[in-house]
Amino acid sequence: MNDKEETQGDNSDGILEAQPLPQPQGPPPPPNGGAQAWLQVLGAHLLFFNSWGIINTFGAYQAFYEQHLLLTHSSSQISWIGTFQGFLLVFFSFIAGPIFDRGYFHALILTGTFLVVLGMMMTSLATQYWQLFLAQGVVTGLGAGCLFLPSIAIVATYFTTKRALTMGITAAGGSIGSVIYPVVFHKLQPQIGFAWATRIIGFIALATLLVSILIMKTRLPPPKKSRRMIDPAALRSLPYMVFNLGLFFAFVGLYIPFFYAIIYAERQLGIKEDLSFYMLAVLNGASVFGRILPGLLADRFGSLQVITVASLMSAIIAFCWLAVDNLGGLVVFCIFYGFISGAVVSLPPTVIAGFAPGLHVVGTWIGMSFCFSAMGLLIGNPIAGTIINVAENKFSGGIIFSASFLAAGAVAFVLAGAFKARASRAAKQ
């Protein structure tokens, strides 16, 4: 009898045969398809629908507040409500990342659902500026921030080969929400009043977010060691930091048309309120395609190259806004600007993944970059509101401000690409 046979022994006496020790296995590869994976895309799409979708609806609220509820406040003061919403949405991702990594995915979307719905319900009861700022700006903004990062992170664990497409579909949820919610508010507010129109939006958010809660599930167990919030190596990466500077510049100017297109239509062009509200819907509707198609181009030509071109074209189109003097021209502007600017919103995560030295720090680097985007989003619209004089129909200063910062962002992206190429050449030598 050889050694192997002695080791296995005879099983006639009830002694179990020796079995090989189980080998540790890594996580299974992403499915890149299947019902479960595509359900995550649907759930993430609805998270975007109720995070960016509600944030981008503020242009409709801005016009209403200026004409009705907050007549004694300036455009700049009112815009702080919406920009603080957007700031919290983006900035809170910096905090939500480690929470997600520790396995609290459902806790994040449950908290986000509660805060978004609570914020909208409290907004419906508000009558003063500070009440609107707390309810709509702070509570709703924090809720949207809880929803935003999980929507990006969960899809990335299910797809690799179709990631650009799935991320584009996910991000398109924000644009679709930005089309539907302003129309809901505009149609219902004259009939049932501001309070109930806002509550209806809250109820729609609750219903759609419940779908996400029911169908979404994490695929991977939480890592034993959660990622850091700040990676010192990122701060030493010149291409990455220059790109972040570009994000700051771009987001300073990016959302000014979304906040002021309605007011521009009514005050500068004399378009009736029934029609002017649809300018925001046109902007956001075009952005649906602008978040999907550039992602497909980025897979072929490079994300950094596509976002650079998109930022430059957004700046050029924003400058063209100065020449708009009729309804047809404004509609054309909204279509082109909404489409091109969508790429600037959806592509940064994939660009940042190309700067990071490894997948283990991508989440950290994206979270750090979101801080720069958030700061630009926070200050851009209030500054533009100070420059724009709605009472005297003077919008040109704010338009130039928006376009100039978008152009500055494009220049920074070009420099980031040059520094990245130089670093790659140096690494090969």
UniProtKB/TrEMBL annotation:
Record key words, sorted: Membrane, Transmembrane, Transmembrane helix
Cellular compartment(s): Membrane
TM stretches of this protein: 78-100, 107-127, 133-158, 165-184, 196-216, 237-263, 275-294, 306-324, 330-347, 359-379, 399-419
Chief location category: membrane
PROSITE patterns hit by this protein: MFS (PS50850)
InterPro entries noted in UniProt: MFS (IPR011701), MFS_dom (IPR020846), MFS_trans_sf (IPR036259), Proton-linked_MCT (IPR050327)
Gene Ontology CC, one term: membrane
Biased segments, Pro residues type: 21-32
Segments of this protein annotated with the region Disordered: 1-34
Membrane topology, record value: Multi-pass membrane protein
Domain Major facilitator superfamily (MFS) profile: 37-420
Family per record: Belongs to the major facilitator superfamily. Monocarboxylate porter (TC 2.A.1.13) family.
Name assigned to this protein: Aspyridones efflux protein
Organism: Lachnellula occidentalis
Gene that encodes it: apdF_3
